[in-house]
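Table S2 (continued). Query chain:
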Amino acid sequence: MDFTAKQIAGLIGGRIEGDENMTVNSFSKIEEGKPGSISFLSNPKYTHYIYTSESSVIIVNEDLVLEQEVKPTLIRVKNAYESVAKLLQIYESMKPKKKGIDSLAFISSKAKMGSDCYVGAFAYIADGAVIGDRCLIYPHVHIGEGVVLGDDCIVYPNVTIYHGCQLGNRVTIHAGSVIGADGFGFAPNADGYDKIPQIGIVKIEDDVEIGANSCVDRSTMGQTVIHKGVKLDNLVQVAHNCEVGENTVMSAQVGIAGSTKVGSWCMFGGQVGVAGHITIGDKVFLGAQSGAPGSIKSNQTLIGTPPMPPTPYFKSQAIFRRLPDMYKQLNELQKEIDELKKQLK
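Corresponding output:
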């Protein structure tokens, strides 16, 4: 389907520079732009591509200053990244939604299905499960006994949702993720370890998205809770009895140990590790590969292990690289001091 620059500008509240009747029918990265496609520019590192891009339309920030003329039609907006995200959401919403129950799916007669749902081949929905309206359940999904899904949920292939877990509305779980597996609870004894039964559940609130191959473990008792608006990347581990606050985001390979509470609007970079039984405040930003061995107060930007503010961290790293030379100098100074002591005797 073709859209004109004028139509697109109307959708995102933009101002056109160039041909308002220029049409596009696809998206492309600015460095790979092709005629008939729309691109966007938000990162200054890619500004030079705007002068050579073959894209027909490019969304840019209002304050972009051009050094020479450009061939594409521009749509200026306050925030190009947010605008293209909105545009992609509109584009995604226009795609036809899957509906119907595949003949190879299994749905228990004791489960309750909402209207206009899709259930793919070899999906399994157990006794007592409750599925809301307009849910998409892809092939090979396992939904255990008593699981509750709200409306407009999307569960991609090979996801397993264990018994009793509760998901809100508009929750998306990507392929291979596991919701509600047992928490890692074992008590040592003389012969090895006794397993501690994990009798709680996982509760996921509205508008949460969980990436591929991530795990959220069920609690020992009570609930492991993922509050509304949380976004977890691929390969994220949230252990038993944890609580993740509203609108917190975590990049790939983040690991949260058991019984930890993470506040709202936090941002964790890739491979961040958080110890168990601690509290992370609101709006805490942890840089990639940081390790948090203890609780952290709200409104901090930290990096490293243990985490520290960025400026002292990078200064420390600069010193760390010089340690071999400093150690050599220290040994030489020690030798000189020892020699002086001998001379003074």
